[in-house]
Structures are given as C-alpha cells and as structure tokens.
Amino acid sequence: KATFVLANPSGLVCLDETAKPLGRLLDLPAQAAPSFPSLDPSGTQILFAITKAPDPKTGFGTDIEAVNIDGTGHRVVVAHEAENVFYDSPRYDATGTFLYFHRNAAVVKDGKYVGNESTIERLNVRTNERMRLLKDAADPTVSADGRTIAFIHLTNGQADGLWTADADGGNPRPLMRDTVFYLQTPRVSPVGDDLAFSAAGNNAAPPTP
After folding, report:
1. Is 206 exposed, middle or buried (0-12, 13-18, 19+ CB in 10 A)?
2. CA-to-CA distance for 200 and 183, rounded, in angstroms?
3. In this predicted model, what pLDDT tens digit does every residue of 7-52 receive, in sequence order?
4. Does the first or last residue of the chain, that is N or C, have fewer Cβ atoms within 10 Å of its Cβ?
C-alpha cells in the first residue's frame, strides 16, 4: 500500500509512508526514463513523462503515459510527433476533463538548430480537442476551482518568474518577480489556498496585484 510514487532511472517506484521502497509500479522498457509523476483527480491512475529509445518513425523524444495505481492499463496519452519533441509535467484539472502539459521542441531552420519552442498546451480528454495556451512557459499546475493555472515563465529558455493565467491561457501575468533562482515545479495545494514551488534564494518581492 504505497503512499508515494517516485520516478527515477529504475522506474516508477512505490514508497510507504516512511519512504521505504515497496517495489516498482510497472516494468518499463530498457533505457526508459520516467519523470514528472502526478495522480489524477479520481486517485486511480498515475500520469508521467517518459523518454525511451528513439522511435523508428518519430525519432528521439518524450511522451506522456498513464498507468492505473494497481499497475494495469499502461497506455500512451500524448505521443511525441517528431524528432526532439518533448512532453512533460502532465496535470489534470479537478474534473479530469482537461489535461495540461508542457511541450518543448527544437526549432530547426535551413537544417540548423536555432533554439527551442516551449509552450503549455491543454487536451480535452473527452473530445480530444487540443489547444496551445501559452508560449515561453513550462510546468503548469491548476487551481482547485479550475479557473487559474500557475506556471514558470521563460526568457531565452530560462526561468524568470512564477506567473499565473486564466485556464484558457488568457490574461497571463507575473505572480512573483526578481525573487529566487532555479525556480521550478509549482504545485497548488489540494484546497487551493497555497502554491508551493522549488527554488533557491529568498529575496521575496511582493506579489503583482
């Protein structure tokens, strides 16, 4: 009976309440590396990003997959469609209708790499409608009421602040600025009152009104 699921090079590892390893949730292919696990609102499945050996058709990249918490029903949710396209940070809204995720893709012009395109996208899992919501953005998390997303804003591919936006990507705005370094992984608390994140430094500036 696991309390935590940890994604590391050995796979999706189940831990008890004391963080003692209990075993793997499922067996993954050789050379596969999972990351960014999250629990869906029903508490019945784990979503995660996974990088595998290059696909014969779509090349090297990262997919989003899901598995039931009993280890059954392993399936692909969002597959990378081309070489050097990477999906991660899957997060459902509270209804389980909308899946938010980060897409990072290499940009190649005239056969030369010129940078990365980093966006947040949303998939309606009931209708299969997919939308691009925000650019220069990563690591989305959804408020308890489903009306707001928080995310890491990027400049030249580097995190430069914690931002929020409406659930459809509208009205993007900074929440904190010039505060910390190595900002990543914002997460909304279950009741929606707090926003936790990982960072270094503590020169906190007041939130943007």
Report:
1. exposed
2. 7
3. 988 889 999 999 999 999 988 888 899 999 999 999 999 999 999 9
4. C
